[in-house]
Amino acid sequence: MIDLNELIKAIGELDENTAIKILEDFISGNPTQEEAQRVVEACQRGMEIVGEKFESKEYFVGDLIFAGDLLARAIEMLKPYIGTKGKKGSGKIVLGTVQGDLHDIGKNIFKSMAEAAGFEVHDLGIDQPPENFVSKVKEVKPQIVGLSGLLTLAIESMKKTVDALSEAGLRDGLKVIIGGNAVNGEACAYIGADAWTINAAEGVKFCREWVG
């Protein structure tokens, strides 16, 4: 049996060797989807500890990047066991970090989990202006657009992006989900998004509900 608290502690303390060993042992037992989802949530709780230590200046930007890489590796290891295992064709998502924001750790985690759940994800990258989202939505005709941002300024960029989608006549039937430390219910209403989250697993759950 996996000790989730030990995994949370290992990631929170940036103990890569211990975290990977725990995950390898877990995977060797051919876990169920439900068990794998609990491990993903434990990994994210470990990242929350990293975030708290970063905010308290115990960790630095390099530590944050290292933690993000560790979490992305963990998600990659768990991919075969999470989401709709082996299922494709769940839907299309256009994803990107909005203009003025260069953070992509949360976006990349969401992308990995969405792909594991069978979504076709078109990742625009970071610092993306509204017109790039509009262009990509016209091109691939997704059911969902995901807007990511860590900084407070991302809120205005997200609003401009949603407004641009509406002005281009693309908003009807298109779901918009926003994510990142800057978002909350109030921001979601202001931006005009359909849902918000700071948890990648919860975000994928919203997307799966939307596409049925």
Automatic annotation (TrEMBL):
Q: Which residues form the B12-binding domain?
A: 90-212
Q: Which GO terms describe its cellular component?
A: cytosol
PANTHER family listed in its UniProt record: METHIONINE SYNTHASE
Q: Which UniProt keywords apply?
A: Cobalt, Metal-binding
Pfam entry (one): B12-binding
Residues covered by the B12-binding N-terminal domain: 1-90
Q: Which InterPro entries match?
A: Cbl-bd_cap, Cobalamin-bd, Cobalamin-bd_sf, Met_Synthase/Corrinoid, Meth_synthase_dom
Q: Which domain of life is it from?
A: Bacteria
Q: Which Gene3D superfamilies match?
A: Cobalamin-binding domain, Methionine synthase domain
GO term, biological process aspect, one = tetrahydrofolate metabolic process
**UniProt protein name:** Methylmalonyl-CoA mutase C-terminal domain-containing protein
**Gene Ontology molecular function, alphabetical:** cobalamin binding; metal ion binding; methionine synthase activity
